[in-house]
Amino acid sequence: MKLLTISAAIWFALDQISKYIVVHAMGLIERGIIEVAPPFLTFKMGWNRGINFGLMSGGPELTRWILIAVALAICAWLVWWARHGLTRPIALLSAGAIIGGALGNTIDRVLYGAVADFLNMSCCGINNPFAFNVADIGIFAGAFGLLIFANDTKMADDEKIDGDGA
Fold first, then answer.
1. pLDDT in tens, 133-158
2. pLDDT digits (tens, 9 = 90+) for 90-120
3. Over 98-150, what HEC string results?
4. Is 152 an annotated catalytic residue?
5. Contact assessment for residue 75 and residue 44, using Cβ atoms and an 8 Å cutoff
6. Catalytic one among 15, 108, 136, 158?
7. Catalytic residue among 15, 108, 117, 157
8. Under DSSP, is residue 15 helix (H, G, I), strand (E, B) or coil?
9. Strand order in the sheet with 33-37
10. Helix pair angle (61-84, 89-112), 10° resolution
């Protein structure tokens, strides 16, 4: 559980610190766009009131609170899963990345009513219109890590012992 907590804290801190530096200290909230290394990296201010790619962003204020509740429920479930099933350190780090990212975006929803997105990356003649943030990276990397490394759980070990496992 220590790895889960450390991972969640690191991803949460990286997300919130990066948002503070880029959005507030560098003035992206006023400037709208800061070209860092165009077209590969541009800071582009975006407020996401929905989920990925702005889905559900046109919903009522209730949508905001539903998304907050869903994020907190997922975090609680991941903590439960980590305590009762995850055994591999990389799986605990992955679950922590999801939790830290989800909490980072949840704080944005509570404070601002939307998630602050600012990373925009394009390459090779493809112009990406979407922005994301460090929390999104943690969520994606954590989900990918769990898909690959979470199969070694206590439940899977019990099935092997009982002879029911494949």
1. 999 999 999 999 999 998 754 544 45
2. 999 999 999 999 999 999 999 999 999 999 9
3. HHHHHHHHHHHHHHHCCEEEEEECCECCECCCCCECHHHHHHHHHHHHHHHHC
4. no
5. no
6. 136
7. 117
8. helix
9. 33-37, 41-48, 115-120
10. 160
Which SS3 state, helix, strand or coil, does residue 29 take? helix
Residue 131 has which token pair? 């922005």
Give the sign of the dihedral formed by CA 96, CA 102, CA 106, CA 108.
positive
SS3 51: coil
Report the distance separating Cα 50 and Cα 34, nearest Å.
24
Known catalytic residue at 136: yes
Contacts of 37 (CB under 8 A, 6+ apart): none
